[in-house]
Amino acid sequence: MWSTRKIIGTGAIAVIAAAAAWHAESIARENSASGVGVVTVFDHAKLDTSFAKALANGGTAPLWSRTSSYGTSNVSVHSRESAKSTCPAEGCSHKGYTAVVIVTSGAATLMVGGTAKAAAPDKFGGQMVQGGQSHRISQGDVFIMPPDTMHWYRDVAAPFRYIEVPVP
User: Residue 28: exposed, middle, or buried by beta-carbon count in 10 A (0-12, 13-18, 19+)?
Assistant: First the structure.
């Protein structure tokens, strides 16, 4: 005969197994359409709309955001096409993340590092940087900017647009 302890133990195992199977089935159902996780596609029209919002909003607009067990990920678009949509006069820097930047149109000279002097800001933001590096970037280029690194853009060939993906 079965003891009460064996019956309860067997019942508990059955309940746990059923819950695990239900959970696995739920996950499989979510991913069954394509065999992968959720995929988000931004076609040219959606990107153009996002860049227009960025330009109207001072140069930056959110493109995509997702919260998961790893934290919140935010991808943004930037449009540096006028003095209204520039980095601050002291330059830009990112706290707490590395920025992977994909240039989608236009061109600019990326100024990195060095020492900012008190000269008048460039038409498209930032201050002249003494001793820094300059890199001419244009459509199709990708650069990776470490955290807390001062940078800004000059000699902008509009429409200068890029997508920024933060990486912790």
Answer: exposed
